[in-house]
Write a structure and sequence with these properties.
The structure is a single chain. This protein is mainly α. It contains 6 helices and no strands. The longest helix is centred in the N-terminal third of the chain and has 24 residues, at 2-25.
């Protein structure tokens, strides 16, 4: 008699308990033709996660957007290439390589390399000094 009551009780509770559990597992309703995300947890990711945005990315973005629009007469591509070298060294964890390449970048700004005008060089130098983590790499800015 006891087993019959448990079976009856479980069959009566199933319509109440199962939807409640499923609603906790799947926060978004599953659309027709869509695979629920909680069923895909065993699949390996196919894409690599994007690396976090660093100060080099911020400086490159400002160089390629703001400076090229504000100063269209100047060629900023050598400066962008140098920032790519810095990004490569930073992503590899090569502190000395990053410091060396930042020195090259700052010397390019100080010497107004590739025909960069005083106005753009000064503004880019101020921006670089504000963004670059000088404590981490021990950067000494030219002229300071």
């Amino acid at each position: 008699m006891v087993t019959v009551r448990r079976r009856v009780l479980l069959s009566l509770l199933a319509p109440i308990v199962v939807p409640a559990v499923c609603s906790m597992l799947a926060p978004n309703p599953v659309q027709a033709g869509e695979t629920p995300s909680f069923l895909l947890t065993t699949a390996a990711p196919t894409e690599r996660l994007t690396p976090p945005v660093t100060w080099v990315d911020t400086l490159t973005f400002r160089l390629t957007t703001y400076f090229t629009k504000t100063y269209p007469a100047y060629d900023f591509s050598p400066y962008a290439q140098e920032l790519d070298r810095i990004r490569g060294a930073v992503s590899l964890g090569d502190r000395w390589g990053a410091k060396r390449e930042m020195g090259v970048f700052l010397n390019m700004l100080a010497s107004r390399a590739y025909g960069l005008g005083d106005d753009a060089a000064e503004e880019l130098a101020v921006l670089s000094q504000g963004i670059m983590p000088d404590e981490e790499f021990g950067i000494v800015y030219p002229g300071s």
